[in-house]
Amino acid sequence: MKALDVMARTVISVDPDATVLQAARQMLQHRLSGLPVIDKSGNLVGILSEGDFLRRRETQTERKHSRWLEFLMGPGKLAAEYTHSHGSKVAEVMTVDVCTVTEDTALEDVVELMERRRIKRVPVVRGKQVVGIITRANLMHAMVSLARTAPKDAKDDATIREKLLAEMQKEKWAPTAMVNVVVRGGVVELWGSIFDERHREALKVMAENISGVQAVKDHLVWIEPTTGMALGPRDEVVAH
Fold this sequence. Notes:
The protein is of the alpha+beta class. Helices cover 38% and strands 21% of the residues.
């Protein structure tokens, strides 16, 4: 399998000129632990993660060093830490050295990269443009889906996934950024979160209408907007 087969196509990103608070609210709203930073030209310029909010002046958790350690670190390192903990713009806080993969990168290589660099997400790029993102959750979805189904023509499965994702993009109501699709042996598996229970049935119907789909497995979690309570599906499999 390749990155193309499991990546999320809709990428929620943040502008480098956005404020740190705006980015934090965006991450909380979409229940994300990180955001790629994309400039106005559509180029990937950095990545922002929960770790970038650990040492902040707002929470009075800036790093405090002894004078001896400050002497060893030097003024440059200390200045960089100050910028990171006090910066108000995403560009001042984000990680610039971003690990990326292409659509054709083997899934094994993606996993190896994530393990080696100890990262939770990898942007998928075409040139300098971000076309998708792979998170640990995407890999877990693929693992569970592959373990449950017998092998079939991978080309057919890829076509089904492409068609379903294209249909989701057409509909303004579809939560494309929160739902991931995995197809194996003609069985569509829907993973992710929804904030309106009516989206569940609509997404099932959309999948059932794709030619070649044998069944739909619903793993979607409904987040109740008022309480934040997470509720899973009542039934998992919808035969087609």
